[in-house]
Structures are given as C-alpha cells and as structure tokens.
Amino acid sequence: MKKPNLANYQKAYQTFSWEKAEKEFKEKFKAIKSNKVALYWENSNGDKKKYTFKEFFLLSNKFANVLRERGVKKGNRVFFFLPRIPAVYFGLLGTLKIGAVGGTLFPAFGTQALYDRLKNSGTEVLVTNRELYQRVKKIKKSLPKLKKILFADQLPKLLDQASEKLETVKTKPTDPALMLYTSATGNTPVCGIVIPHKALVQQYFTAKWILDLHKNDVYWCTADPGWVTGVVYGILAPWMLGVSQVVFEGRFSAEKWYSLLEKYKINVLYTAPTALRMLQIEEEAASKFDFSSLRHICSVGEALPPDSISWTQKIFALPVYDTWWQTETGAMMIANYRCLKIKPGSMGKPVPGIKAVIVNNKGKILPANKEGNLAFKPGWPSMMIDVWKNKKRYQSYFAHHWYLSGDRAYQDKDGYFWFIGRADDVIKTSGERVGPFEVESVLVSHPAITEACVIGKPDKLRGQIIKAFLVLKANKKGSEEFKEEIKAFVKKQLAGHAYPREIEFVASLPRNPSGKVVRRLLKAK
C-alpha cells in the first residue's frame, strides 16, 4: 500500500485543470476491443458468463442498431427496468452510442414508483423482462409516450439479426447522456437528473485516482445499476480504464460475498457502509476465505462510521476509504485518498479541480470547524445540466454563486470535510435516498389512512430507517397485524427498501400556522 503523501495531493490540487484533463482523456481513451474479460457475471442460481471487451463492443453496436431500427434518435429516452443481467450493461452503452439518453430503474420499484419516473421522463423505449413487465402493464395505458417495449428474452434473436457495424453519433460535451432519478422533497415525488456526455472526463479520472483502478485489476462495484453509483462506477468508469469487473445478480448473503471476493481474486471493492455492517454481522464466515488479492476498499452512499474502518482493517487487513457525491454531481466530489491519512469519520478532501466550501445561508464562506452548508463552485464536468421538466427545482440548487448540496457539514483546519446531516428531509436508508413525499403519497392512498408523515430514524445497521406516523380513519383501529398490512402495501407500490419499518398511530400530526406538518417535532419525539 502507498504511504500517505500530502505533497502528492497538494501538488495535484494546485496544478490541476479540467482543460488539461479533458485533453488527456481525449488522447488516452479509445474504445477497448481486446479479448480481455470485461465482465464476469454470475447469478444466485450458479449460472456464469464471461464477456470480453470485444464482445461487449460488438453487442453494444448491435443493440444500438436494434434501437435505430425502431426509430430511436438522438435525444430520445431509453430506460432499462431489469435485474443485473448483461443486457443492462451493453444496452446502456449502445444507447449512448447513438446519442439517445439512457436511464435505469431499480428492479424492486412498484407501480407508483415506475409511473412517476416513466411519466416524467417521457420514455419512448423500455427494456424489461416478462416478470417485471407485469408491473408496467398496470400503468401502460397512462404512458402515451411509451411506444416500444423490448423484452430481454427477445434480445438474443434481435441482436443476431442486427449489424455489428455502427457509425457512432457525434455529440457535444453538453448534450444529455444520462437521466437518473433521485427522490425529492416538497410536492415533487421524483427528480430526473440529466448528466451530460462531458461527465465521462470526471468519471474516468475519479475512478483512476480514488478507486485506484489499474488495468490488470478485477473490480467489484456492488451497487445496482438502477442507481447512479451502479451506472457511473459500475458500468462507465471501470470500462473506460480497461478494467475487468464482477457483477453478481442475487440477494445479499455474507458468505456468498466473501466467496466472490476469493473466487474472482477481486482487487478493488466499491460498496456501501450498510453492506459492510451486514458483512460484519456475519464476520465468522470470513475465516473460511482468502482475501489476499484485495488491495483497496472504498465506500459510498452514506456517512462511513469509524468502526467500519477498524473492522475492515481487522478482516481484510485494509482500511475503507469513504467517498462523497450525489446523483446531481455526476461523479465523486470529496474523497479519502491512498496518498492521504484517513481521519476516521471524515468525508475526506475535495477532488482536484473541485472547489468545496462551507457557507452560511447568505453564501459567505465559514471558517474552519463551523457548521454550515456544504457547497461547491459550479462548472465541474459531471455537474447536472438540468432537472427534467423542472427548471425551478434545478435553479433551487444554486444560490449566491454556489451549488448547494443540501448537506450540513464542516471543514477542519487540515481541510478535511465532516458530514453532519441532511439539510432537507430526504431519508437515507441502507445507502438509498427515499423522499418522504413519495412514501407518504402511497400511505395516504390506503383506504384506512387519512394522514401520514414519515421521518428518518437513526439505525445502527441501515443508517436510518423509515418511521411513519399515521392518522387512521375513525372506523379503523391500529394493530400489529394492520402494521404488517401497511408495510406490504408500500413495498408493493414503491420498493423493498422504501417502506416504513416502524409505524406509530397518532390522533393528529403537529402543524405550523400555515398547515404544514412540523417534522422536527416528530423527530424530537
């Protein structure tokens, strides 16, 4: 392992420019067409497949031609609602090659979550499978712009018939490449974050610097491609660097995860603190396996507690390096680096080329150790260029010449940033962001519920859990059986992680004079 060297970071930070980085990226990056393995894929049934870079290059060309044959043009939206199967990976690459805008949907989404995203995006083409389509089928009539459905079991035949030759569409750096959804607060259940093509520059360099990916590495990003991490650092960035990666389609099992680390001789692991805590619960299983190939671990999705660093040191003989970024930022912004000393619990330091500060509500930069709003100077390559059909929401991120992240934090005298909490009410549970409005909308659609308010409650395993306060109709009484009914109801509509694990029945909700529910009183309770 490299020894911490502050001078390396300081030099890079002081001399770096995105203009030079873009030039280097254009000179070095070429589509990789070798017979080296790009993807090791495995599912919970024990099925396994390997794909080379050449095979993926040709499959993505063929998929692009399948889309073209169906009238897909530059700027059209193509969404993937699939489990972690290879079609998501070569399909998204093929989508980008013809200038279409790619989007992904978490396979656990229920009908309401799907409707919100497909309706807002105006998706023209959806790629799914027969099982997941049963959810889409219920809302299809309400999605007039959704003209084409491609099923995963149709793709082999369609790809066989398609040409492997493709003239890639020329795009401008500022043209939209990805539309990825994040939960919002207020009266908008979802936000379609639009990321431009030039984001590839920042995604490439952050994978190189922070994930420390080398060409001969085997890499595993455990994030689902339904989320931004699984797209940026689970599809695009590692393959731009020519790195082989592992994808596992299956439910979490500590023993299975430990076995995959050994089996594929994984060198770099990018995962979430929640996953590390779940591995920690079953750490006795780790003694059966050899992790000597593993040389670097990074985390993402939520604040990394200090005990996770000490635990990975104990089990893997390695620390874990935290990273901070958002769907809206398009790539890593603050991180811990192998050339810097880790301060357990800290977010780390800004990526070279990124100006990060702590500001007050008037945009004034605050001194060291003063809590405020985590903010950034706009203009980095991967910064979102739009919130789809919501200019007001997009503009709300910017004030006093800063991009406001919505996080509260402080910066210490050594330049390290420390996360305190969300400034808004978005709940982070098991590393996933869940908007209260989205959950509340489903809850109040239940015939026995008149009012609902959800908050994030601190939880040792998941970071936060969703807790719901419910006002029932007069003729309905709360019970433990009814709580389980409500949980199942929300799971069906949204996703397996987006349901209230705790439910409390109340006579009324606390409100301010304007009639808005005062969440802080419920949180204090």
TrEMBL record:
Name of protein: Acetate--CoA ligase
UniProt cross-references to SUPFAM superfamilies, sorted A to Z: Acetyl-CoA synthetase-like
Superkingdom of this protein's organism: Bacteria
InterPro entries: AMP-bd_C, AMP-bd_C_sf, AMP-dep_synth/lig_dom, ANL_N_sf, Mitochondrial_ACSM
Residue ranges of every copy of the AMP-binding enzyme C-terminal domain listed in the record: 438-516
One GO term (biological process): fatty acid biosynthetic process
EC numbers for this chain: 6.2.1.1
GO molecular function, one term: acetate-CoA ligase activity
Pfam families registered for this protein in UniProt: AMP-binding, AMP-binding_C
Chain ranges of the AMP-dependent synthetase/ligase domain: 33-377
Similarity section: Belongs to the ATP-dependent AMP-binding enzyme family.
Top-level class of the enzyme under EC nomenclature: ligase
Assigned keywords, A-Z: ATP-binding, Ligase, Nucleotide-binding
